[in-house]
Structures are given as C-alpha cells and as structure tokens.
Amino acid sequence: MDEIVAAVRARLLERVDRGEELTNLGDADEVAEQVVERLPIAVSPWVEIVGPCYTSGSLQKELGRGRAAVSKAVAELRLLRLRTADGQTVYPAFQVVNGAIVPGMREVLSELRRGIDDEWTWAQWLNTPVPDQSSEDVSNRRRNIDRLIAGEVDAVVTSAARTAASWAA
Fold first, then answer.
1. Which of 38, 40, 70, 139 has the most Cβ atoms closer than 10 angstroms to its Cβ?
2. Distance CA 107, CA 118 (A)
3. How much of the chain, in percent, has pLDDT values that exceed 90?
4. Residue by residue, what is the 3-state secondary structure of 46-104?
5. Alpha-carbon distance 71 to 93, whole Å?
C-alpha cells in the first residue's frame, strides 16, 4: 500500500510542477473516496468461509501463552494456522473457546491431513455447516467445529477420516 500512496503522490507532484492547481479537485476526503472507489479491490471468499481470525499476537493473548507454545501447538496439529496470499499468518477464531484450543483438533487435523495437506481446506471443512447425520431433519446443520466443541470428538474424527479418504481417492 505504501508503494501505491507513493506513486499517487509522485503523479500529483508532477501535476503541481506543471503548474496545475490541485485545489480544483475538491475536498481531499471526497477525492480520496473517489480514488478508492475506482480501485479493483477483491474481497476474498475465504473471509466468509473461515470467519474471524486471530493474529499471532492476539492469539497469544487469548490463550495466555507465548509464541513458542503457539508454534508447538501448530507443529503438533493441535492448532490450525493459515497463511494468506499476502504472506500474513492468521489463526481461525473458531478453534478457540474460553481461552483454550478446542479439544480434538489434533486428531481431526491428523485425519484430514491424510487426504490433503491444505490448511485452508481443513478450515473450510471445520467451519462449514453440514447436515447432522444423526438426525432425519436435513435442515439441522452444524459445523464440525461445533460438534468438537460439544465433545463429539470420536464422531468428528470418524467423519474426518471418511472425508480424507474421499479427498485422497
């Protein structure tokens, strides 16, 4: 973003050097709004799929643990870490409840990894509502992460194993 601001500033200064008056453009806030509205900014669909995320610092505060503990939890597949297209590291908030990592994450992520080694796909699998297999009512949809939070670890691990097998096929 700094490069864009610098480039716009350079173009504006070129116009000033040619004797053009920038006051003819109008109010600075209105001009900025017009410029931003014309930018081809795309909103990633992953924001809606994954939901809110912690930064490393905010996750450390939420868990009451340091960077090393967070890194260890990621390495042990107890915690899901995502890398964004612009190189940022984020942690989906759905995997933390009451200041703790949801139990069963290691077992579930280990199973999902057997099918595909893609954290974004795992996040989608955990956070997308699916029909409850134990209910006849197809409108009864829960996320796999909700099932983990409810203590249904074995059932979610079994579901993850089935999903991983279909991904790997």
1. 70
2. 16
3. 59
4. HHHHHCCEECHHHHHHHHCCCHHHHHHHHHCCCCCCEECCCCCEEEEHHHEECCEECCC
5. 16
